[in-house]
Task: structure prediction
Amino acid sequence: MTMPTTENDDRLILGCWRLQQRTPVQIAALLETALESGIRHFDHADIYGGGDSERQFAQALRTIGCPRESIVVQSKCGIRDGHYDSSASHILASVDGILDRLGTDYLDTLLLHRPDALMEPAEVAEAFSRLQSSGKVRRFGVSNFRPMQIELLQSALDQPLCANQLQFGLAHTGPIDAALQANTGFDGGVDRDGSVIDYCRMNGLRVQAWSPLQFGMFEGNFLGHPDFAELNHELNNMAQVYGCSAGAIAIAWILRHPAQMQVLLGSTDPQRLKRLSAARTISMQREHWYALYRAAGNRLP
Ligand SMILES: NC(=O)c1ccc[n+]([C@@H]2O[C@H](COP(=O)([O-])OP(=O)(O)OC[C@H]3O[C@@H](n4cnc5c(N)ncnc54)[C@H](OP(=O)(O)O)[C@@H]3O)[C@@H](O)[C@H]2O)c1
Result:
């Protein structure tokens, strides 16, 4: 049931949102563990820790002597205090701030953090073109976008959008519920996201699953949580079957989806991160995948 880990595969990304909860020494140890575990892709946003996550990440990379070109670094912009801002001036200024805090002269990927109702696609296109031609950003993507919002933006861009970051995990299955419960009167059959995962698959955008172990919007981790007793029971059973931690099973569940999603791991604990990274070696059986979906409280028609 296990497959060899692909060297430097890109299915796992270390999310750096919570980094500032840790000391510089702990962050350096976390990054070393990530690299040893084959995780070389790191996700930031200009707002994480008010910019401190990016600063501390850069400091830790210097401490461990990790060359910039050996890793993939992405960040996000567009969320401001109480509003969203996808104006060209804000995007350009944000990237300068991000590069300065990260101590690098380029980002591999820049994502627009959330849809902005006041977005002017032509303005975003101008900003993206300037960032790409100056070498400051190599690729562009979005986060929490629906298909039509992607279409609208893409219609003005010279570059193909490469990724859409979405909340997805066993306690947040909304993006697949509507398809699974299609043509029923079940609550899960209501389409909130416009078949966004199918859309991304068809159009070459990589889905990046954020907060894979959280329920609600940042309400807590479902692992070991009493409100998810049935799910935890099933996760623990599968952990025995596959010989890994329950957390790794929850991550493997996301990796098993044929969209070939990337998963953003948010742990700041090196030992936990190592255990979670075992998810890449698990090839989950179809019936186990559905058993977990049902144990998370979902109905199949
Ligand atoms: N695009 C967006 O709108 C958006 C929104 C939110 C997040 N994100 C991205 O997604 C990344 C991941 O989000 P997340 O931090 O919420 O991810 P997560 O992996 O779901 O949660 C990690 C948190 O759960 C805790 N935790 C408790 N028990 C755990 C266990 N048994 N196994 C693993 N973790 C456990 C971790 O604590 P320890 O640190 O002590 O392990 C950590 O605080 C972020 O860093 C960010 O890059 C994007």
